[in-house]
Amino acid sequence: MADPTVSSTATTTPPPLPLKIIAGADAFGCSLKDTLVSHLRSLNIEVEDLGTSSYYSIAAEVGRLVSAASTTPSSPSPGIRGLVACGTGVGVSIFANKFPGVFAATCLSTADAANSRSINNSNVLAVSGMATSPDSAIEILDTWLKTPFKSPCPASNSAPWGEETESFLDNSLSEMPVIGTNLSDPKQEEGSINASACALCCLVKNRKLDPIEIIPGGAMKIVRESPTSAIVSFKAGSVEPAHHHTFGHDLVVLKGSKRVWNLSKKAKYDLVVGDYLFTPAGDVHRVKYFEDTEFLIKWEGKWDIFFDEEMEVAKSEISKEADDGFELVK
Q1: For residue 177, cis peptide bond before it (omega within 30 degrees of 0)
Q2: DSSP conformational letter for 328
Q3: pLDDT class for 141, splitting at 50, 70, 90?
Q4: What are the φ and ψ backbone dihedral angles of 52, each rounded to 5 degrees?
Q5: What domain of life (predicted)?
Q6: Arithmetic mean of pLDDT over the chain
Q7: Which residue from 30, 53, 83, 219 has the least number of CB within 10 angstroms?
Q8: Helix, strand or coil for residue 31?
Q9: Residue range 206-212: average pLDDT?
Q10: What is the DSSP letter of 322?
């Protein structure tokens, strides 16, 4: 049953529906997520369903993708939003919120949903698979989709916001996204070594990378021959289909984050800044980039690559990650 505290005013002039929802859940939220995904598709909203994984992994992936897609994070009606579910709805909210421009809200009622949109401009909805029935979750989702930013809501006693509050909310659109992005490290201010003094990072500066024509989103620049090393970059969301080389290679992540599936060893690796990985010659591996990513790679001999699957097959396999049987190596 709908929450009687939600004003009908909040849905009389609804904002444009999102062009796309990126969804994911853990095992405790997957059934509810599937129900909501079906409902979204019945509304002709495009859904990218990332499937099921641990609450922190799946929420982080949804958060990364929503963040990467948010070219205008301060928009009062973002075109791409997220939907995450776990047992409580809290854990997925915590990890989705670790990415710039993501405002995830755990909503257990339609009042929560209306408030999160009106006040916080929420662009990721987190729901509880244990505390919320499918019917209630659909009502929560519909309210969240249809409630405009700054609209009357339970927190405003279902009345329009006053002029002072309206001004505060308008300013919040530009002020919220930059919080946390300009934090400085006091040690760096005191003259300690920082990123600009890192030898590897200096290799990247002022270098123009050449596009990798056979893999969309990638670029590379060789910086040394025999042994060969190169700086490689990939845009967020890029995928390297399963492939292998005649050489083994070492890499160090300089920026961003990625996941590597070693199909030969049935192992997968989550890599972030500073992480190192060696892949032996002949090992078949697949890669997905969660953020704009740069890394240094080194190998012996002439560069080559042999693809073991098509791009669409790779994307399909990645979407079924929860059932891939790979061991996550930490």
Answers
A1: no
A2: E
A3: very high
A4: -125, 135
A5: Eukaryota
A6: 83
A7: 219
A8: helix
A9: 79
A10: G
From 243, 229, 250, select the one nearest 303 (Cα to Cα).
Answer: 229
User: CB within 8 A of 187, min separation 6: which ones?
Assistant: none
Q: In angstroms, what CA-CA distances link 137 with 9, 146, 267?
A: 21, 14, 36
Residue 96 near residue 51, CB atoms below 8 Å: no
Burial class (CB in 10 A: 0-12, 13-18, 19+), 105: buried
| Token representation of residue 160 | 């329009």
**Where in the chain does DSSP place strands (E)?**
20-25, 46-52, 80-86, 104-106, 124-128, 210-211, 218-224, 228-234, 239-244, 249-255, 257-262, 267-272, 276-279, 285-289, 293-299, 306-307, 327-329
Sorted by where each starts, the structural domains of the chain and their CATH numbers stand as 19-174 (3.40.1400.10), 204-328 (2.60.120.10)
pLDDT band at residue 201 under the 50/70/90 scheme: low
Q: Which residue has the tokens 């972030």?
A: 272
For 146-157, give the DSSP string: HPPTT---GGGT
* 191, pLDDT greater than 60: no
Which pLDDT value is given to residue 10? 39
Q: How far is CA 285 from the centre of its chain?
A: 22
Nearest to 286 by CA among 249, 265, 260: 260
CA distances to 43, 163, 167, 283 from 110, in Å: 18, 25, 25, 50
Give pLDDT, residue 162. Answer: 85
In angstroms, the CA 189 to CA 186 distance is: 5
> Which whole-number Å values give the CA distances from 197 to 155, 191, 209, 275, in the listed order?
49, 11, 21, 18
